Amino acid sequence: MNGWTVPPPPPPPFGPERPIRGKKVFAGIGLAALGQVLVIGLGVLLTFLFAQSGNGENALLGVYAEILLQILLFLACLTFGIIWIVQKDRGIGLGLIIGWAVSVLVFPIAGIGVCIAIVNSQTGTL
Asked: How many CB atoms lie within 10 A of CB 55?
């Protein structure tokens, strides 16, 4: 034997490996769903307020605002989800991304549908 040994592997770049906890993932999913509810509520409120002006074009601004808010929520969940996965708590970051992906299938369709119904009730048709 010549006394040669295998060196230990280098440490991970962001510290020790952190476990992903189920409770934290569900907390992140809840945060994303709460964000969806807030964005939809704000979009419906804006649509209602714009529709009160009596101008059909103003009422459409609420629908556009709802779509813009959904895009901003997507960017926020993606950005903060990645930051949390890389630097802080992987469970919450993963939950934010999963939660947005799941809630975007249901909440925006309902929210944009309500906005369009408000516009239709104020203007007659869309």
From this structure: 13
Q: What is the mean pLDDT of the chain?
A: 79
**3-class secondary structure, 34:** helix
Q: What is the torsional sign of CA 59, 63, 69, 72? A: negative
Mark 71-100 as b/e (b = at least 16 C-beta within 10 Å).
eebbeebeebbeebbeeebbbbbbbbbbbb
Q: Predicted confidence band at 1 (pLDDT cuts at 50, 70, 90)?
A: low
Cα 88 from Cα 86, distance rounded (Å): 6
- The first and second tokens of residue 111, run together, are 């929210």
CA dist 9 and 11 (Å) reads 6
CB atoms < 10 A from the CB of 25, how many? 20
Judge if pTM exceeds 0.85: no
Structural contact between residues 62 and 36, judged by C-beta atoms closer than 8 angstroms: no
